[in-house]
Amino acid sequence: MSVASVVDGLGTRARIAAATAGVALLVVAGLALAGATDVLLAVLALLFQKSTLAAALRLSVPIAFAALGGIFAEKSGVINIGLEGLLIVSAFGGVYVTSITGSVWAGLLGGVLASTLLALLFAIVCIEFRADQIIAGLAIWLIALGLAPFASTVVFGSTNASAGTTFPDIGGLLARSGIPVVSTTVVAGLDSLAGLPFVGALFEASPIVYLMFVAVGASWWTLNRTSFGRWVRASGENPKALDTAGVNVSRVRYAAVLLSGVLAGVGGAALSLSLGQFVGNGPTMVNGKGFIAIVTYLLGNYNPIGAMLSTLLFAGLDALQLSLQGQNVLAIPRPLVRTIPYVSVIVVLALFGRTRLPEAAGEHYESGEE
């Protein structure tokens, strides 16, 4: 039996787990062959530090939400490579609304609204006017890349803008909840466990991290257990059959693309509001996370759970390289350290990537077509 046939037979979660283990083994083997036992132990210690795990969770949020949005859009037959642009415009929208209202929750809604409006523009261009989806997606990215920093300069006088506040961590939120048992007994119990890496990282995470896990489960359920999910999948696989069954294909695709805007909007607003600022210099603070999201859901084979695991793989490596730069553990230039997550993802894609695109992805369809 060939290696390829074994990999093809694995489920999505098993494949991601195998990929993660493969990357870890490559790193361990490389360090061991180099005789760098002390370095290996130092890297492992950094990997399981509470600060590294907390950073991995924080970095996962925008990528995971954008990936979920991309899954819905592409499953319906619309290839949305404009996720980067949706993240950018929602990151600015979240900071702008928060600076006006003083509420991060209002800012989150503002970011979602900005992203959804841009997604609506993309949907109209692609579905109504049958534009090339790849070109339209690139246009959305470029529009957001220019519009968000320009709007920040007009409103705040700089491409960088401050929201004035950030999301609270879940521990502080529970402590201020006013619920007797939760704000005292539960918080005290969690405080006693805060020294443990995994528990401490979760306890200090923002509520958006928990919303991310809920969104992954809800997305999987929606796609696999609801009528809307079946319509989305049919729209991307066989739109003619869906049309014959009496379901309007265009409406399903509009709904899926708008949902991708909502999900990406949560991710973009969470990215900026977790730091309390919007950075519009260069590629902006989003810095390619929308494109990484595309990679994660392709690696996860359009499964929300697989996409989440892929996201955690990349975010964990990204958090590790940040820690490695701060600690100077590896005797290699920092620019090379920064490439660790990207090179690892490329290796995983090359070794374990077995993605099947929806049959009608990228194809236009109008009800009544033969």
UniProtKB/TrEMBL annotation:
Record InterPro entries: ABC_transp_permease
CDD domains named in the record: TM_PBP1_transp_TpRbsC_like (cd06580)
Topology in the lipid bilayer: Multi-pass membrane protein
GO cellular component: plasma membrane
Entry's localization field: Cell membrane
Main location per the UniProt record: membrane
TM spans (from-to): 23-47, 53-72, 79-98, 104-127, 134-158, 202-223, 254-279, 291-315
Molecular function terms, GO-annotated: transmembrane transporter activity
Keywords in alphabetical order: Cell membrane, Membrane, Transmembrane, Transmembrane helix
PANTHER family named in the record: GUANOSINE ABC TRANSPORTER PERMEASE PROTEIN NUPQ, SUGAR ABC TRANSPORTER INTEGRAL MEMBRANE PROTEIN-RELATED
Protein name per the record: ABC transporter permease
